[in-house]
Structures are given as structure tokens and as C-alpha cells.
Amino acid sequence: MNRRPEAERGAIDPLMLEMLVCPLTKARLVYDRKNGELVSEGARLAYPIREGVPIMLVSEARHLEDRPAPTHRSGY
Amino acid sequence: MSNERASGGEGMETSYGYETVGEGEKQGRVNAVFDRVASRYDLMNDLMSAGLHRVWKDNMVAALNPPRKRGYRALDVAGGTGDIAFRILKSSGGQAHVTVLDVNGAMLAEGQGRADKRGLSDKIDFVEANAEELPFEARSFDAVTIAFGIRNVPRIEVALGEAYRVLRRGGRFLCLEFSRVDVPFLEQAYEQWSFHAIPRIGRLVAGDEEPYRYLVESIRKFPSQGDFASMIERAGFERVRYTNYSGGIAALHSGWKL
Description:
The complex is a heterodimer.
Chain A: H1 14-19, E1 30-32, E2 37-40, E3 45-50, E4 53-54, E5 62-63
Antiparallel strand pairs in A: 1-2, 2-3, 3-4, 3-5
Chain B: E1 15-16, E2 19-20, H1 26-37, H2 41-49, H3 53-64, E3 73-77, H4 83-91, E4 97-102, H5 105-117, E5 124-128, E6 141-147, H6 156-166, E7 167-178, H7 184-206, H8 210-221, H9 225-234, E8 238-245, E9 250-257
Parallel strand pairs in B: 3-4, 3-6, 4-5, 6-7
Antiparallel strand pairs in B: 1-2, 7-9, 8-9
Pfam families (chain B): Ubie_methyltran (PF01209)
Function (chain B): Methyltransferase required for the conversion of demethylmenaquinol (DMKH2) to menaquinol (MKH2) and the conversion of 2-polyprenyl-6-methoxy-1,4-benzoquinol (DDMQH2) to 2-polyprenyl-3-methyl-6-methoxy-1,4-benzoquinol (DMQH2).
Enzyme class (chain B): transferase
């Protein structure tokens, strides 16, 4: 697959951001540009964005108390 | 092990093909199948349908008939490789916007690569998420489609409820899935083909028999046309109809949120 520039990997399309909610609470998300994550305050979860794709899975999300998860993803 | 077709959604949660697995285990097992077949997904569908899946998908999007106007938004659930999304875009004259959702990252990566190659990245979004927990606001889409994906979802009725939630009033749900063959001779022939030929071909071509056996068995477990239509109605959809394709090898179910 295409490798995008480093800076773009955690980036997200603003229109997409407008549409997304937390899959658990269905509440709006806050985009954390620095970490490339979508933060659900209510669920205390941060969903990663990889290659521009938001990963809206609780199993992949970081609990807000924890450190940022490594950006490398096994599998591809 | 059970090869009985489920009549409602019951049992689909813990059935991995004919094998019974623990609650919560199915998603992981299904995911492993798609990790293994992502790059050969078209080949797999060609094998399962003798190439007919392309025609069925064309028919599905013809039935959807997306308008050639801006602002029309479709969500394709379990649509990783972009097969349906590209057809919707084409049919809308490039006016629609399609969000492709899949629980499997390998399938999405395949679709993203194809979208880049076709220069369609502006009109398609990719989201990795679960069909049972859609990460979208209520009433966000004009259409929700799912092609050959619903039988892999553990809790089908939950996924149907989510599809209903994210649709706007007047929005349409379309679901294409392998179904129950209703032509006696064809049924026997298809049975032979799917249980004996497909896993062997899978082993020869892809070097792996097990994922293909899962796919064949999961097709046989999935509720029949009428039973699935009832499930769609229970989720709140109205004017629920289905159309058999190729003698019921596949069926297109349609419902409206009115």
C-alpha cells in the first residue's frame, strides 16, 4: 500500500472529523493533533489515526491515563 | 458442530462456520480469516460465486440508484476493499460521498490502495470500526449498504439496529449476501461445488484451505431470505423486500427508514 508522509499519518479530513462520534458513548470527539488521536472524554479513550484512517475500535484505543501507544502496527 | 441454518440471529454470535465458539470469540476468528485473504479477496469471491459476485454487486448499486447530485452520503459497512464504494461513486457520476467501514485493517488498506490508484481518495473515507458499534451520529447517511459482510457479524440484530440509527429518514438499507438456493437441481450442484471444490481450490490457489471452508460453512449457517427479512423488519425498517440472484445463491434485501 501507499506510504504517506510521516506528518500525514495521524492527520484527518475535517469533514470526517465532523461526522465521527465515539462508538461507545456516541458523543463528539476531540482531535488531538499532536498525538494523532481522537479523544472521547466520556469513555476516557483515545482512538488512534493510522495512515489517515481513524481506528474506532475500543480494543485499539488507549486509555487516557496510559502513555501514547506506539504508532507501529503489526500485520502490515 | 451444527450445520443447521439459523432462523433468526440466534446462534450466529457463536457460530464460526459449523464450529461453535465462545461468546466474543467469533470476531477474532473471522478477522484472522480476512487477514489471510485480503489481497486475494476478489479471487475468493470469484471462486465462491463463479464470477457472478461482480454482476450481483452491479445489480445492487443499480437498485440503490444513487442520485447524481452533491451531498448524497452512503456508508458501506464491511466494505474494506472498496468494491461497492467505487460502484456507488461511478453510478452517481462522481457526486456521492462514500464512507467505507471495515473491522479489518488489512481489507481497508487494500481498498485505500485501490482508491489512491483510481484517484478517488477525495470522495471516499475509510474508517476501521465494528458494524455493531458504528462511530457516526444518528441520521448521517442517505444509504447504508453491506455486501457479503453481514454473515460475519457476530450480533446481526445489533448491526441492523446501528444501520437504522445512522440512516436519515427516507434513507435506504441494502444488504447483499449469499443465501438459500431455491432451485432443487442447482442446490445440489452448488452444495457439491462449495463443500468439495472451493476448499480444495483455496488450498491450491491460496495455499490455505481453512479460511475457504469457513466461508462456505458460514454461508450455510446464515438465515434464509424470509427469516432475514423478518430480522430487518424487527430493526425498524419498512417496505422490506428481497430479490434472489442466480436462483438464490445470493439475495439482495432492501428496507427503508421512513
